[in-house]
Structures are given as structure tokens and as C-alpha cells.
Design brief:
The protein folds into four domains: about 120 residues, Rossmann fold (3-Layer(aba) Sandwich), CATH 3.40.50.2300; about 160 residues, 3-Layer(aba) Sandwich (Rossmann fold), CATH 3.40.50; about 70 residues, Orthogonal Bundle (Helicase, Ruva Protein, domain 3); about 60 residues, Arc Repressor Mutant, subunit A (Orthogonal Bundle), CATH 1.10.10. It is about 50% helix and about 15% strand. It is built from 20 helices and 14 strands. The strands form four sheets. Strands 2-1-3-4-5 form a five-stranded parallel β-sheet, with helices on both faces. The chain has a five-stranded parallel β-sheet with strand order 7-10-13-6-14. α17 packs antiparallel against α18 and α19 crosses α20. The longest helix is centred in the first third of the chain and has 20 residues. It is globular and about 90 Å long.
């Protein structure tokens, strides 16, 4: 039995929902909007706050969520909305709501949602072990960008909400997902990675949901899928943007119902999973182009985390390189300072993965000696920045002053490009002051990000 605060400005809906709740043995307090809900929250505590999202008055449903999170921190907030893909519903989840239900809501669906919320609340109370912070050794770097990522990963690990990790290939999305799992309360459970881009479309359902013996040719025994294998832990859906549309529908149902049905089976099995998804695609654009379901996107994008490209944080490259060397059992000071400076100036479109490959090739050719810029030049598939400048300038500018001016201009342009137009970071990369880079840009006729 639970103490439930029911908030809805529709009297008929409020009465029907309240009757269903009372028949299930719950105590219900009825409110017709944020004002009466605020008064009720000051008078007593609740286990569940159940509120309609769309009520008279702007953001009335969100107001109830905010009040509940602030005044009833022990209560689980459930939303009722007519729009499964509503951005407002997602905003409410981000504010701290537990889940949302889509109208029309059946008594069975409502009862299951309340049971899930009460179970989660009870398990949160029982868990006494604190969640460890996401450490810098696991996700190397000193930049403000990576520090913000570590902070967001720590917050994600402290919750049970779905996480969507975005970023280019090689930026460490799977590492981030594993850190969320490792530092969460599910750390003792399994971490099951699924590469959605590597599974043939015809095998997707069987791999994800499992199958019953005889369900299709070759199904010689009952087999659980990856979703069931992740029970009690974390399911990592890598490259979620590659998932076929028909599977997106079925995954959405799993996220809503927390039940899975194997191929060829009539039995539905309960699953207790936390989903972390990752993609290098722009899912906003994929939704607009009709390649990805909007309702699934909103279900996944509850806690978004973006992994920055390595060219956006070149100051992290020395620490990442040192971490890789330690991982391989080598001394980190084997990389010369000049070599590190060249690495910081390379575009590295493959990000950390490309940096790792470069270092491995250099180690293989080094005969145990220092990894210097000449060795980097040998293994690098593209000319080093200084080579590009010097050879081109010697041929095109016989006048020394003109050549030096062009070299300065080229270096400024490259630094700004690597720092995405951020003049402060470009100045740091070049080892000059902000005032100096601004003066040099004005002298050479270069435009800043604001024109």
C-alpha cells in the first residue's frame, strides 16, 4: 500500500484513476492543480506523486514535478501524457520524474508502473554503498571539456535513468559506458555490449531477444538474448543509430514495459536492466529524416553525454599518451617533448583510437629507443604540420619577410581550426597570450569567430 498524491485538472480522469488506485489498496489524495498539490505536500509525505502533464496553465505539470522533487525527495514522480514523444515529458524526466505513462492508461499499466517505482525506491533505501567518483585515471585528461564529461558520467552513474552517449568514432564512448556501469549500483551485475551495426538484420531479433527451440531453422535449443543476459546489470547498445526500424519498435516496448519475449515464445519475462546507448550519428537529424523513431529517441536521450573530439582538447594528448604507455608496460617518458607537440597539432580524425595506433606503430619501429618526431614522421600517413608549412613556403615565397608572414598566418589558422575558433585555447596551443594572438590576427587580417 502506498500514499499517492494524484494531480489532474480533469475531474472525470481524476476520479477514474483514483478509483483504480484505491481498489488496489492505495491511499489517494486528490488535487486539481499545482496550487492544491503544493498545499498537500506541505501537510503530509507521499510515496508516489502521479500528475497529468498537460493541465490548465503554462507548464503546470512541470511545476508539480519541480515541487515534488524539492518538497518530497523520497517520493517517485509518475507522469501521464497524451504524447509519447513529448519533449515536455522528457524535460520532466530530466527534472527528476521516475517515468511517464501514455494515455489512455489501463489499470494494469498503472499498477505495474507504481510497483516499479516502489521497488526502485525500496532498493535505493537498501543500498548503502556509496557510488565511487569517475576517476581521472580511467578517462585521462586535464581539459575543462573532459572534466565536465567526468562530472556528467558521475551523475549518470548515481542514477538509474537511460543514458545516450554521442561523439565521433574513437572518442571513447564504450569506455564512458563501462565507467557508468562500473561506478553505479549495478556494478556487481553484468555489462552486456551490443554492437548494433555488426548484427545482420535477419538475426537482430534473435540476438537481442533470444529464441525458443524450433522457432526457426537452426534454433536447436532455447537461448536467452542479450537483453535477458543483462538482467540485473547494464545493456550497452553501441551504434544505436544502425538499429533497423522494426527493432526500434520492439526495443521501445522493452524500455516501457521492462518485459521481453523470445522469438517463437508466448511467455513474457521480466527484465531488470539499465540501458546505455551510444552513437556517432546525429539522431536529431535521423529523426527528421525518418530513419529513427522520435519516441525511442526521447526514451534514450534522458541523460545525454557528448564525448568531445581529440582535436577539441589537444592539451589532453600528453596525459592520454602517458596512460597508454603505462598500459603497455612502458615508461611514459619515452615520448620526446617535441613528438608530443607534433601529436597535439595533428587533426587525428580517428581520435584516441588513431593516437593509440600511431604510438603502437612508433613503438614497433623504435628498437626500444625514444619516440621522437622523426619516427612520428615515418609512421604518420599525413605530413606533419611543420613539413607542410616549410616546403610550401620555400617554393612560393622567395622573400623572407613574406614567407615568415605566411608561416605565421598558416600557424594561426591551423591553431584556430584545431580549437574550433576558440582564440583563448588557440593562444595556449601556440604558447602566446590572448592579447598577442588578437594583435597578430588583426595585423594579418584574420577573422575571429565573431567576425
Amino acid at each position: 500500500m502506498a500514499e499517492i498524491l494524484l494531480v489532474d485538472d480533469d475531474a472525470n480522469a481524476r476520479r477514474l484513476l483514483g478509483m483504480a488506485l484505491e481498489l488496489s489498496g492505495h491511499d489517494v489524495v486528490y488535487c486539481d492543480g499545482p496550487d492544491t498539490a503544493a498545499q498537500a505536500m506541505t501537510e503530509q509525505g507521499f510515496d508516489i506523486v502521479l500528475t497529468d502533464l498537460r493541465m490548465e496553465g503554462r507548464d503546470a505539470g512541470l511545476d508539480v514535478v519541480r515541487m515534488a522533487v524539492e518538497r518530497q525527495p523520497e517520493a517517485s514522480v509518475l507522469l501521464i501524457t497524451a504524447y509519447a514523444s513529448s519533449e515536455t515529458a522528457v524535460a520532466a524526466i530530466k527534472l527528476g520524474a521516475f517515468d511517464y505513462l501514455t494515455k489512455p492508461v489501463s489499470s494494469e499499466e498503472l499498477g505495474e508502473a507504481i510497483e516499479r517505482a516502489l521497488r526502485e525506491s525500496a532498493s535505493e533505501t537498501d543500498r548503502e554503498a556509496p557510488v565511487a567518483s569517475v576517476d581521472a585515471e580511467s578517462l585521462a585528461g586535464v581539459s575543462s571539456l573532459i572534466q565536465r564529461v567526468r562530472e556528467r558520467l558521475h551523475r549518470a552513474a548515481s542514477s538509474e535513468f537511460t543514458v545516450l552517449i554521442t561523439g565521433e568514432s574513437g572518442t571513447g564512448k564504450e569506455l564512458a559506458a563501462r565507467l557508468v556501469h562500473r561506478h553505479s549500483k549495478r556494478a556487481s551485475g553484468p555489462f552486456v555490449p551490443v554492437n548494433c551495426g555488426a548484427i545482420p538484420e535477419g538475426l537482430f531479433e534473435s540476438e537481442l531477444f533470444g529464441h525458443r527451440r524450433g522457432a526457426f531453422t537452426g534454433a536447436e535449443s532455447d537461448r536467452p538474448g542479450m537483453i535477458e543476459s543483462a538482467n540485473g546489470g547494464t545493456l550497452f547498445l553501441d551504434e544505436i543509430g544502425e538499429m533497423p526500424m522494426i527493432m526500434q519498435v520492439k526495443l521501445l516496448r522493452v524500455l516501457q514495459e521492462r518485459k521481453v519475449r523470445r522469438v517463437g515464445d508466448e511467455l513474457e519475462r521480466d527484465v531488470d536492466i539499465r540501458v546505455v546507448a551510444a552513437t556517432n550519428r546525429d539522431l536529431h537529424r535521423e529523426v527528421q529524416q525518418g530513419n529513427f523513431r522520435e519516441d525511442l529517441f526521447f526514451r534514450l536521450n534522458v541523460l545525454p553525454i557528448h564525448m568531445p573530439a581529440l582535436r577539441q582538447r589537444p592539451e589532453d594528448i600528453p596525459e592520454i599518451a602517458a596512460q597508454l604507455m603505462r598500459k603497455w608496460g612502458l615508461t611514459e617518458n619515452r615520448i620526446s617533448p617535441a613528438c608530443l607537440k607534433y601529436l597535439q597539432r595533428l587533426p587525428l580524425p580517428g581520435n584516441v583510437r588513431e593516437l593509440e595506433n600511431l604510438l603502437q606503430r612508433m613503438i614497433a619501429l623504435s628498437d626500444g629507443g625514444e619516440l621522437d618526431e622523426s619516427l612520428l614522421r615515418e609512421v604518420c600517413v599525413q605530413p606533419l604540420p611543420q613539413d607542410t608549412i616549410s616546403l610550401a613556403m620555400l617554393e612560393a615565397y622567395p622573400d623572407l619577410d613574406a614567407m615568415m608572414e605566411q608561416i605565421e598566418k598558416t600557424m594561426l589558422e591551423q591553431a584556430l581550426q584545431q580549437c574550433d575558433g576558440n582564440m583563448t585555447r588557440a593562444a595556449e596551443l601556440l604558447g602566446i597570450s590572448f592579447r598577442s594572438i588578437r594583435y597578430r590576427m588583426q595585423k594579418l587580417g584574420l577573422k575571429g569567430p565573431d567576425g
